[in-house]
Amino acid sequence: MNTQVFKTDGAKITVFLDGPDWDGAATATVGAFTCKTPESGAEVLDQAITFIRTQGIRQILGPMDGDTWHSYRGVIQTDGSPAFLLEPRDSLGELEVLKAAGFAQISGYFSARVPLVQTAQTVPPETANFSIETWDGSDPEKLFDQVFELSCEAFSRNAFYKPISRDAFMAMYMPMVGVLKRELIFFARRPDGTLAGFLFGTPNYAEGPKPTSAILKTYASLERGAGQHLAYAFHKAALAEGYDTAIHALIHDDNLSGLRSAAEHADVFRRYGLFGLKLDG
């Protein structure tokens, strides 16, 4: 990844020159942005923008560590509740610096929570197109290999998608094997055994070694209705495992999963934004 780090007294930012396309044009991203004061943040951001200009790039996304496979988005609204596992950090100060430089929000996301006793009230309609199964806990490399293939196909339709190599994907996700809880990982499989969808849930270890909430972190599907079945299975399993609360994490405002979260009467507790800047000239 073609990157450049800029530092000033009290601020730091990383430029990723090979970001995802935005409106069909080459785009850089800025991420890993921290600043102690608005002035130090503005100074380091100006250096980053000047550098991007010299590279002939006229579009910038942020906060984003290169692509949507890595950390991106910043908190724009919160009720002050503690961060959950793998959540983007609170970056309101840095976002104000971005906005002052002309960045505008171009995409929105939210996280919501719901008591598990009020979830999974409606059984999804039966289907012969796929069946839901849990991960048996064996061969994690094979698990992530299948997840990689389906993710690339399912997420390729998303805005700001950028392909990733299998090796890069494995390097990100294999270190997570030690914290995976197989009872919260589900697959939707077609009758021929091929993968139609997956859902990764995880205990919210940010609460400590005995968390009371479980996170519906990531799911993707290629078959209509698979997401609904996967979410139903997750909520039932999380309740059976003794968790009190489900966290519906990092959902795009326009995503169908947002409607499902609302149908469970989940309460939004955090909102996030992705911002963009188009440079003149």
Automatic annotation (TrEMBL):
SUPFAM superfamilies under this entry? Acyl-CoA N-acyltransferases (Nat) (SSF55729)
| Protein name from the UniProt record | N-acetyltransferase domain-containing protein
Organism, scientific name: Thioclava indica
